[in-house]
Design goal:
about 150 residues; alpha/beta; Ribose 5-phosphate Isomerase B, Chain: A; five-stranded parallel sheet; 6 helices; globular
């Protein structure tokens, strides 16, 4: 059972809409993939210029309720930088399935950031399949992941 939240800025809107339709079909006869129990699309919903920061913050503030999140902008970079300012977020920009596998297994990534300018629907779909099914490896990685949520003055 997965609670999933998704959001984009104007450059990621088209890809977000395609992925949302695939992940959470409106047709009641279609089954929901990956045991998604809660799905929330936090926008944007119209093709208007928007700041990626606002979407990333809106998603990050809800990560105490949702298990996983997906953020989509032109490159994915701005979304990841903004979202990672929140202690419950482990956001990673991924460009392929290998990136997703490692980020899930080694870093317990809970927010997948995708660059819509460089990622087509099929690639994004495969990355999300892995994002929602690959488990955190735990072991030696657990201590390191716990440190990610700690703020330290250096």
């Amino acid at each position: 059972m997965i609670d999933l939240i998704i959001g984009s800025d104007h450059r990621g809107l088209e890809l977000k809409n395609q992925l949302s339709d695939w992940l959470c079909p409106i047709d009641e006869d279609e089954t929901h993939l990956f045991n998604i129990t809660t799905f929330q699309d936090i926008g944007i919903h119209k093709k208007i210029r928007s700041d990626y920061n606002d979407t990333a913050v809106a998603l990050a503030e809800r990560m105490d309720v949702f298990d996983r999140g997906i953020l989509i902008c032109g490159s994915g970079f701005g979304m990841a930088i903004q979202a990672n300012r929140f202690p419950k977020v482990r956001a990673v920009v991924c460009t392929d399935r290998f990136d997703v596998e490692r980020a899930r297994q080694h870093n317990d990534m809970n927010v997948l950031c995708i660059g819509a300018d460089t990622t087509d629907f099929e690639t994004a779909r495969y990355m999300i399949e892995d994002f929602l099914t690959i488990k955190f490896a735990k072991g030696r990685h657990t201590k390191r992941v716990k440190k990610l949520g700690q703020l330290r003055n250096v």
